[in-house]
Amino acid sequence: MTFSLGVVGAGQFGGQFAHLFMLHPGVSAVYAVDERPERAKEAVRQHHLTGTMASFDDLLASDVDAVAIFTQRWTHGPLVERALRAGKHVYSAVPMAITEAEIARIIEAVRETGKVYMMGETSYYNPATVYARNRQAAGDFGRLFYTEGDYVHDMDLGFYDAYAYSGGEQWKETASYPPMLYPTHAIGGVLGAMASHAVSVSCVGVRDDRGDGVFDREISMFGNDFSNATALFEMSDGGAMRTNEMRRVGYPSHIRESRFRFFGTEASFEQLANVTVWQNKAAVEDISHLMATQASMSLDDPSLENVAPELRDAFVSGLAPVHDSSRLPAEFQGAPNGHEGSHHFLVDDFVTAVNSGTLPPVNAWTAARFTLPGIIAHESALQNGARLPIPDFGDAPTAL
To answer: What does the DSSP assignment read for 216-277?
Structure first.
């Protein structure tokens, strides 16, 4: 069984995913849509896609089965809802939305249409989260009572260029996007390993002082001057979670931009830029090698000579040894990957969900729990750290 798909936003990031969707045997055709037609045409040429469509409206009016949305981060909510109401399955880049009302409308649209919605949260497949999820399932942590998820991505390390590429001449208006409205790379990596969710939050925002026109309230379309923010969440199981969203930080985010810590009554897990350890009451085990992802390479690359055969797929596909590469389509072998090996799994889980009529791991209800805590955290920061309750839309249904 296969389906057709339109990729909305055919720039650098969207183009990478269009390529993977085109490779997947569960997808029959991939079309590119972009406000800049030349980008859509270039994506078709570069990734051998099926063709282009003139606009988002044309895509929704077509007989294409699904859409994948890679537009500006504050635009996702309304576009997702429109696509669902038009009878399309939807894959959306993060975040799910930027208001509670937008999230509520997406969940209602999924309920009413029965269509698949998946948020493309990379941290759910982060090697640290995969490892912690497996150890938690085995009961190795004991009771998890404190966790941390940080998204440490300095503006100087790629964000200026990215915003300028997508934002045009007025890019500084959008580069001030509030850090806590992009929370899922931190929160998703924690909640992706455990069953609880956030129920209240107190957040402190750090006002920017660079003076370069970014995070300037007078210029910002969001009225935002926070470049860094720290939130402490109360969890539904009585534990606590801390999240940092940092855009001005002396940290090598090109090595690892999301990092995690899990503390349980029996064991703990801690991660830095290039070191990861598992600890219990008796010892510390360095498990950094299980987290390491490699750039894509050929199976006959000489550097793989001394690598165990069962690990070679991971190295070739930019995965970590902790990843289960056996579940991925053979067509992905050697294909570009990203975000610590997550891209292949993101595409495969969405395609599998659409073709089987099942809920993907990061479905609308899960996505709400990854996203809404950050929205409320930003409100808390605007209220000088007031502790605010976090609404919850409940657990996902067992079936669409």
So the answer is: -TTT-TT---EEEEEEEEEETTS-EEEEEEESS-SS-TTT-SEEEEEEESSEEEEE-SS-EE
Q: Please list, in sequence order, all residues whose beta carbon lies within 8 angstroms of the beta carbon of residue 287, skipping any fewer than 6 positions away.
A: 131, 276, 277, 278
Q: What's the predicted TM-score (pTM) here?
A: 0.94
Distances (CA, A) of 219 to 73, 172, 180, 211, 383: 18, 7, 19, 11, 21
C-alpha 54/C-alpha 56 separation (Å) is 7
Contact 224, 177 (CB under 8 A): yes
- Contact by Cβ (8 Å): 321, 288: no
- Asked if 93 contacts 13 with a C-beta cutoff of 8 angstroms, the reply is yes
Q: What is the pLDDT along the chain (400 residues), one digit of tens a residue?
A: 999 999 999 988 999 999 999 999 999 999 999 999 999 999 999 999 999 999 999 999 999 999 999 999 999 999 999 999 999 999 999 999 999 999 999 999 999 999 999 999 999 999 999 999 999 999 999 999 999 999 999 999 988 988 988 888 899 999 999 999 999 999 999 999 999 999 999 999 999 999 999 999 999 999 999 999 999 999 999 999 999 999 999 999 999 999 999 999 999 999 999 999 999 999 999 999 999 886 544 445 554 455 444 444 554 568 999 999 999 999 999 899 999 999 999 999 999 999 999 999 999 999 999 999 999 999 999 999 999 999 999 999 998 8
Q: What's the CA gap between 41 and 167, in Å, rounded?
A: 20
Domains in the chain (CATH in brackets) are 3-122 (3.40.50.720), 123-290+363-389 (3.30.360.10)
Q: What is the distance between the alpha carbons of residues 383 and 385, in angstroms, rounded to a whole number? A: 6
Q: Which two structure tokens, joined as six digits, stand for 343?
A: 């891209």
Cβ atoms of residues 245 and 113 within 8 Å: no
